[in-house]
Specification:
CATH class: Alpha Beta
Strand content: 15-25%
Radius of gyration: 19 Å
CATH superfamily: Ribonuclease Z/Hydroxyacylglutathione hydrolase-like
Helix content: 10-25%
Number of helices: 11
Number of domains: 1
Largest sheet: 7 strands, mixed
Distance between the termini: 44 Å
CATH topology: Metallo-beta-lactamase, Chain A
Shape: globular
Bound molecules: zinc ion
Order of helices and strands: HHEHEEHEHEHEHHEEEEEHHHE
């Protein structure tokens, strides 16, 4: 019985990997260099280093994070993710809060949302400073990616003037068109012209209908998870030894994708850009959770990420 279970599990894993294969695409212009290649699971000779970097602690109530949550306080966090790739260099996914948050934690998200959470960020806690403690200068960051452009993920985007910035086109357009009431700061983005990408048709990956192998070597695969924002993106990271899935704000805490269960009433009602799409994206991540025991799924704001035994080795303070 047990052996049958293992065989079935291996069979399912092979099917899941096979379903992530991509057809050869012919990208145009400056996108070419990042889209070439079709291997999906990274198998480079040197494994790449993946780290989760906490940027700011957040205290809120459990019931805001997920429907049915308790009235207890809950510790959350905002994270940035650092990937050191042997070929493509240093990559950040999301930047966390900007420096101004250390001085004025209420600046973002602004009232009345600021009354629902208490943000604690140390001076110099922004990612551009934190990486310096680990011997990396902002100009050594080669590429910056985002799950979405809410300001607790966009951070001080201008602190990396020499980095390539690559954003899902739908998200960039939404951030420029919608204002502060939607969690964006288009004034921070004025004058920037990042490279944008779209998801090609016919590129399914696991439960997701489309995907994009950003570096062409299977190390970072973007999948669309619209709902929290219109152009929200989640990422598979394959280091060569371990696979991760970064949910972005599709899942704030583990309950969101494990149960699965939506966020609390207030954020569900007033933060999600498209509640139906958000539920659909969450259901897809839940399917991943049920079917891919090998995958470490990393929720975007859960304080438990810091104490989870499986994730602890990947935390960079
Ligand atoms: Zn968000
Ligand atoms: Zn967020």
């Amino acid at each position: 019985m047990r052996r049958t279970g293992i065989v079935l599990f291996l069979f399912a894993a092979v099917l899941a990997l096979a379903s992530c294969r991509h057809e050869t695409r012919k990208p145009e212009g400056k996108m070419r260099h990042i889209l070439e290649g079709r291997t999906t699971i990274y198998q480079g000779e040197e494994s790449l280093d993946f780290k989760i970097v906490p940027i700011a602690g957040i205290t809120s109530w459990d019931f805001h994070t997920h429907k049915g949550g308790s009235t207890n306080k809950r510790q959350l966090n905002a994270y940035s993710y650092l990937i050191r790739h042997p070929v493509h260099g240093n990559i950040l996914i999301d930047l966390g809060y900007p420096a101004v948050t250390a001085k004025d934690p209420g600046e973002y998200p602004g009232f009345p949302a600021s009354a629902l959470m208490k943000i604690r960020m140390e001076k110099g806690g922004q990612i551009s400073e934190k990486i310096k403690r680990h011997g990396l200068q902002p100009e050594e960051i080669d590429l910056i990616l985002f799950t979405h452009l809410h300001i607790d993920h966009m951070g001080d985007i201008r602190s990396f003037p020499s980095s390539r910035i690559l954003v899902h086109k739908t998200e960039w357009d939404a951030a420029m068109e919608k204002g502060r009431s939607h969690g964006y700061r288009p004034d921070y983005l004025q004058g920037l012209s990042p490279e944008t990408f779209v998801f090609p048709e016919g590129s399914p990956c696991g439960p997701f209908e489309r995907s994009l192998d950003l570096l062409g070597d299977g190390s970072i695969i973007a999948v669309p998870t619209p709902g929290h924002t219109l152009g929200h993106v989640s990422y598979f990271i394959h280091t060569g030894g371990q696979s991760f899935f970064l949910t972005g704000d599709t899942a704030w805490v583990e309950e969101n994708f494990q149960v699965p269960v939506r966020k609390g009433w207030l954020p569900h009602r007033f933060v999600e850009a498209d509640r139906e799409a958000q539920q659909d994206s969450l259901d897809r991540i839940h399917r991943l959770y049920r079917n891919r025991a090998d995958l470490l799924i990393v929720p975007c704001h859960d304080g438990k990420v810091l104490t989870d035994d499986r994730l602890k080795p990947y935390i960079l303070q």
